[in-house]
Design a protein that fits this description.
By secondary structure, the chain is an alpha+beta fold. It contains 12 helices and 27 strands. The strands form 7 sheets. It has a 7-stranded parallel β-sheet with strand order 13-14-12-15-17-18-19, sandwiched between helices. A hairpin with a 2-residue loop joins strand 1 (3-8) and strand 2. Mean pLDDT is 86; it is low at 169-176 and 517-558.
């Protein structure tokens, strides 16, 4: 089975085709997929494609997909892939991020793009373009693989989409009504049960409201990026502000799919309205910006953050991500997050939060590891580490969630619950006792993250001039160090971050930095270290890799004196192509450098491409592919990229 090796972030992925699934883009939303050979729709939105299975017939999956591509009802068809060691389906979106050698010019770059029939979508810089495949291009994985072997290309990365984890509780359960909201103020018991909790094991949100003298500002906007928003819910429907759906590219949020319910409880923990009808979020006055459609795709990631920033989000809460190293975000996505965290809010930076993840492992969600992100873990109603909550040095803070007793959150009206613990009300409630059909038990780092997002909204209500970095610093400096003292090194714990969030202290510090009074009735209860001098910042080892010296000639090179002999070369054997040039002066430079540095013979293919003369510089010839590949490896070790080609392809020109 053919395998493709492609770059994805900081990883090199080896991908193989699925033998069951394909991806399709119908020409119209009205297209009935079952009438064009589709047996079952598995996922409706993955990289802009529908992932489907096809009705079985005598043809192979490749042939069936080729037939679909010829159909007038299908705009695009693609294979679905899997990375080695992973069961997550992957779809290439068709776009490729190409970093050219800095010494290439636009004309030389165009030659490379034309060779693969690529169309420029966006020119990000003089040497970085986003291109997409056309009907005349090979599949994007093959293109990216071959581009990576061209000397004029430093890096070629296909845009891939895959499923990301939603960090909800393991049983997907939650709780209801303000008197039940122990995570906001823990009085030591569950209202309707004889179940003991630890007094004070909460986020001190009620005390923060008391200090503010209100429930926060109506001017603060919390963007929640997720799937499954019930915008008709009584705790959310009056708060919606500039919604956007990535999957359908509109302000009309997709609702009603029972596979997606996660966004509704997450949003409610942050900002459920204080309307007397149900629960109350940490920042009940804040505006709610739902951005629907989580995605691994770089372009979709860029779009979701750009929409949040451009539409006025102050805080961006993300209870999803991955702990699979194959799908770590990489430089491109990290740049998107960094841009929002540093340029949002008119330069003060959007406050961005990511869940640490629920895998019970010793590293956090790779999105949460970003240095500009507030990475949130989970603590319990007993003020202990939640066993499922991921640990790691990038963890910023923890916040109350399930693990002992769950919290309460809103439930989407199409939520079918889970039968993990049985049917009936156990699908929604840990103890099988209903507290209302609009709510359910909830938890996980999916819940602790929007709780901290709501607390950030209270901090900005107190002091809207705080920068994103200051908010992260304050949260870290004012957190309560729960657990054992020896678990903290320089103020930081791998289990708790800088401690359990304390909304009251954080709001007090926000007020102090504004120059206001902090003695307005708030509580400062909770265990803390008196000598906590931690900075609240997290660092990671440098991921920068040394770049090799370039032997690529510049476009302006070509002056000087060259000695050469010319003879016709038979179109037989193999060679190592090291460049494609539009200027003959650059051909001379490349040939001279090759002969000088590697003492190898050089041949040149002259051809016409898009009405222009182009020159392919090839080291060779060699009798066998193995000999040519051996030379390629020697050259690569010396810093010169190239790829093996069969010289027979030039037969008509010989």
């Amino acid at each position: 089975m053919k395998k493709y090796k492609v770059k994805s972030g900081r990883r090199n992925l080896t991908l193989t085709k699925s033998q069951i699934y394909v991806g399709i883009k119908p020409q119209s939303f009205n297209t009935d997929p079952h009438q064009i050979g589709v047996q079952k729709q598995v996922l409706q939105h993955l990289g802009g494609f529908q992932m489907v299975t096809l009705k079985k017939n005598q043809h192979s999956l490749d042939d069936q997909l080729d037939d679909l591509r010829k159909s007038r009802s299908i705009a695009v068809g693609t294979h679905v892939y899997y990375a080695e060691g992973s069961k997550r389906p992957i779809i290439p979106t068709g776009e490729i991020f190409i970093h050219f050698n800095k010494k290439t010019n636009k004309e030389e770059q165009k030659i490379v793009l034309d060779e693969f029939a690529l169309q420029i979508v966006e020119q990000r810089s003089t040497n970085f373009v986003i291109a997409k495949v056309t009907k005349n291009s090979p599949n994007p994985l093959k293109v990216a693989d071959e581009l990576q072997n061209i000397s004029m290309v430093e890096r070629a990365e296909p845009d891939l989409d895959t499923l990301l984890d939603e960090y909800g509780p393991e049983d997907r359960i939650t709780d209801e009504l303000f008197s039940h909201s122990w995570h906001l103020k823990n009085n030591g018991s569950v209202v309707d049960l004889n179940y003991p909790l630890k007094v004070g094991a909460d986020a001190k949100v009620v005390a923060a409201w008391q200090r503010l003298g209100n429930l926060g500002s109506k001017e603060i906007v919390i963007a929640v990026i997720d799937n499954g928003f019930d915008l008709t819910h009584q705790d959310l429907n009056q708060k919606v502000f500039r919604p956007y759906d990535i999957w359908n590219q509109s302000s009309s949020i997709i609702q009603g799919d029972p596979r997606f319910t996660h966004g509704t409880p997450c949003a409610s923990v942050a900002l459920a309205a204080a309307n007397g009808k149900g629960i109350v979020g940490a920042a009940p006055m804040a505006k709610f910006m739902p951005i629907s459609g989580t995605s691994f795709s770089y372009r979709a990631t860029e779009e979701m953050f750009d929409k949040a920033v451009n539409n006025g989000a102050d805080i961006i809460s993300c209870s999803w991500g991955t702990t699979d190293i194959n799908f770590a975000p990489g430089d491109l996505k990290e740049a998107v997050i960094a841009k929002a965290a540093r340029e949002g809010r008119n330069g003060k930076g959007c406050i961005i939060l990511y869940a640490a993840g629920n895998d019970a492992i010793d590293h956090v969600n790779y999105y949460g590891a970003h240095p500009d992100v507030i990475c949130v873990g989970a603590s319990t109603s007993q003020d202990k580490h939640a066993d499922y909550s991921n640990k790691g040095r990038e963890l910023t803070i923890c916040a109350p969630s399930n693990g002992d007793w769950p919290i309460i959150a809103a439930r989407a009206n199409w939520d079918e619950g889970t039968s993990v613990r049985g049917d009936g009300e156990f699908k929604y409630w840990a103890d099988g006792r209903s507290r209302g059909r609009e709510y359910k038990h909830f938890g996980g780092t999916s819940s602790s993250t929007p709780l901290v997002a709501g607390i950030c909204a209270l901090m900005l209500s107190a002091n809207p001039d705080l920068t994103a970095k200051e908010v992260k610093q304050i949260l870290s400096d004012t957190a309560d160090q729960i657990g054992m003292p020896f678990e903290y090194i320089n103020g930081h714990s791998l289990k708790y971050g800088y401690g359990r969030v304390n909304a009251d202290k954080a709001v007090a510090e926000a007020i102090r930095r504004k120059g206001g009074s902090i003695a307005t009735g708030g509580s400062t209860s909770g265990t803390t270290s008196g000598n906590n001098t931690s900075t609240g910042t997290t660092t990671r080892p440098s991921t920068t890799t040394p770049t090799r010296p370039s032997t690529q000639p510049t476009a302006s090179a070509g002056s000087g004196l060259f000695k050469f002999e010319v003879e016709r070369q038979a179109a037989k054997g193999y060679g190592v192509q090291i460049g494609v040039f539009a200027k003959y002066a650059n051909v001379l430079i490349a040939a001279e450098a090759s002969q000088r540095e590697f003492n190898r013979p050089t041949i040149v293919n002259i051809n016409e491409l898009s009405g222009k003369t182009v020159y392919k510089v090839i080291v060779g010839p060699y009798f066998s592919r193995g000999s040519a590949d051996s030379v390629r490896r020697q050259m690569e070790r010396a810093g010169q990229r190239g790829f093996v080609i069969n010289l027979d392809q030039f037969q008509v020109l010989a």
